[in-house]
Amino acid sequence: MKYNRLSLQDFLGNLSSQINPSKSQVDEFKSHISKLQQTDKEESEEHHKNAINSFLTQCFKYTINTKGRIDATIFEEGEAKVIIEAKSLKNKSQFPANAETLESKAFCESILYYLRESISNNNNNIKHIILCNLNCFYIIDAKEYYQCFSKDKTILKAFKNTDLKEGNDTTTEKFYDDLAEYLPKLNSEISYVYFDLTQTDTMDIALIYAVLSPAVLLKQKMFIDANTLNQGFYDELLYILGLQEKLENGKVIIIPSNTQNTFLDSITKNLGFNVQDDFEDIFSLLTTWNNRILFLRLLESMLLSFGHIKKPFLDLEIIPDFKIFNQLFFDVLAKKESSRTQIPKGLENIPYLNSSLFEKTTLEKEDEKKGGKNKQIRSLDSNPLELYKSSVLKKDSEYKNKDSLPLLEYLFSFLHSYDFTTTPQDIENHTKINFDKLINSAVLGLVFEKLNGYKEGSFYTPSFITSYMCRESITKIVIDKFNSAKNWGCKTIDELYNKIDDIQEANKIFHSITICDPAVGSGHFLVSALNELIYIKYKLGILCDEQGRKLKDISLELSNDEIIIKGQNGEIISYCIPAHKEIESHKIQKAIFNTKKGIIENCLFGVDINPNSCEITRLRLWIELLKYSYYEDIERKYLQTLPNIDINIKAGNSLISNFPINTKLTTGLTIEFTRNLKTAIEDYKTQVSLYKEALGNKTLITQKISSIKTMLKEHFIKWDKRTQSLEKSVREFVGKYGEDIFKWEQKFRDSDFGFEIERIITDSLYDEKGKPKNNPIKFQKGLEGISSSSEPIKTPDELDKVGLKLLESIKSDFEHLEQLRKGDSFEWRFEFPEVLDEEGDFVGFDLVIGNPPY
């Protein structure tokens, strides 16, 4: 038999990046190891066994007991799951001689106990076998025993001779002797992990913790949720904003607090708002500013890690008041470096990112034209705010004896009490550093979502669910996409990998995948989809740089909804300002950024009825790109700008649409008009592309896109059967009763209805060139038999039943068509040009994913 010793990381496999104990857990684990090592080495074997059982129980709350002749068994729900064969340190003759072999009486005993449990007791749920003493542990997956021993005829015969009393000598010693003689001849290999508790370094301790944890030993399902709220951070953030949570009708909602000198209090005092009457507007400002501030704290952390700045810019020395904060928003981050003037000292090196997050909202622009006071952050005061009852600052000696701080100082101090990160570098030697103070993009996503659900309460899907759903569904659509494009019959990603021979073509096919979340919320599904798509590209071997060259000598894995990239030696790749563009970390950073950008622009789409949800989703996707920002101009320290991805995330009621998605756009049209329509579709796609890439005047591009969408909508309205019904009814009515009834008061002539009636009448009388038609409608000035008056009819009161019915039909048809034009619907038929073919017909998304309605 061959003995294959695995490293701790190889034994753990993917779990090595998923089970990362906190520093406090590792310290406690070390303490238990130290206590185990203090066990008297001269004590009996039974004493040593009890010490080992106590060690495992104290560390991991295992239920351990004996079972039959087995030294110890870890039970779960009353069933034996792990077999432990323990020896004393003095009993070296019955224990493996060294780390490279299992050969020993302890090994033979464990095989007998396994066979008894699996065959005699019909236990098919044994997970692991442990051979150990106070210092050394050998751990073997029970599947290794099943494959090597359960089917071997010689071993089974020896077992039956002993355990089923079928042999002449039925003693266990006979079984052990026969097994010891047979194992060296057995043509099998068994894998295991070994560690010595007396010879471990910092990295090994965390990995040993993982190996001995229930997630490994008991193979418990791991539901790791990166989207876990840091309650202390969230509660104090609400307090600073001037908000508080309240349980109402079984839902946690957010309401104003009465605390003085919070953001909300300063808004009401300085911007002329009333808390009760204007809470919607107040909350809108609070969430806008909160989103910006948290984004800036994340940006600050990234720039510090890059070496872009030497010290934080969210500091009173640089931003002493809210007026300077306002300048940071609109005069720095909203403008390209070349367009900035009179930048406050300390903010000169803040990069332009092209994020609409720093464009003025409607409220912020509201009073500018009137010359009134702007509803902008610059108008706030920074008066002393009493420290939150359980403030994180009270743990800091600098603030221990302070009862209050000016609002802006409180905000900055609070934010810097937590470690904001855009990278997985919070894991050091497989240990979570400052876990209780770590704020990453997933935690921020949950904060955004809870604030967004202030009325109805927030609902979020744990990361392990979004990741699982995305992995299962996206893997299938990727395979289907390639099979369809290349006429292949692949069933797995590995089969696809072996088929791909043209990386450039493969990337083109890959980026044609379209995924939509029709109730996007905080964007959690889209973030999981983004990272899953990156991972699949890596597995397919088509993750490339901008020249189409495959990234080599890296490994990429997904952990907790995050991408982790490691070098060939297993080190996590980090980024800082490169000396030149050929630095490997720079090429990797740039490649991941551009890949993410391409996927976000081409593949990911979302809709939500709540506009704030759309803003949060855009923000989360921007943060995903921010993690891999790179220097486009190294010498001038210009970061690559973020694309205008907001156009892929639209506000609207995704359940209501008026135009069927299966209608053909060009049916029944002249060839010339069809060509014009195709040109319009091409222009639509071009304008959207220009918008995303920020190429051209954003306002003009937006106007063109709006104009094309209006034209498409009017085209569908024109061919709607109710338009034809309206025109028929108007012509019939005018032909019989005249047109004057539609002009009986001035406001009618100026209304949308008046314009529509006039259009129909004009179209009936004149051709496209304005010439009278040969057979125009005959207009009567009066109603013979109903009125003797020679004057035109002034009101509908004198109409007969036929006329009244026609008027009712006209009114009904017009209202229906106006609803199509102005109603609160979301028109899937033409909102996303990425899912229209060259004829303008809707081809749909490859995957629609999301939560069911709550």
UniProtKB/TrEMBL annotation:
Q: Where is the Type II methyltransferase M.TaqI-like domain?
A: 602-854
The record's EC number reads 2.1.1.72
The record places domain DUF7149 at: 7-225
Pfam families given for it?
Answer: DUF7149, DUF7814, Eco57I
Which keywords fit this entry according to its UniProt record?
A: Methyltransferase, S-adenosyl-L-methionine, Transferase
Task: Show where the DUF7814 domain sits.
Answer: 226-431
Catalytic activity reported? a 2'-deoxyadenosine in DNA + S-adenosyl-L-methionine = an N(6)-methyl-2'-deoxyadenosine in DNA + S-adenosyl-L-homocysteine + H(+)
| Coiled-coil zones | none
InterPro entries (alphabetical): DNA_methylase_N6_adenine_CS, DUF7149, DUF7814, MethylTrfase_TaqI-like_dom, N4_N6_ade-DNA_methylase, SAM-dependent_MTases_sf
Q: Give GO terms for biological process.
A: DNA modification; methylation
Taxonomically, the superkingdom here is: Bacteria
Q: What class of enzyme is it?
A: transferase
List the molecular function annotations (GO) for this entry: nucleic acid binding; site-specific DNA-methyltransferase (adenine-specific) activity
Q: What is this protein called?
A: site-specific DNA-methyltransferase (adenine-specific)
Organism lineage: Bacteria, Pseudomonadati, Campylobacterota, Epsilonproteobacteria, Campylobacterales
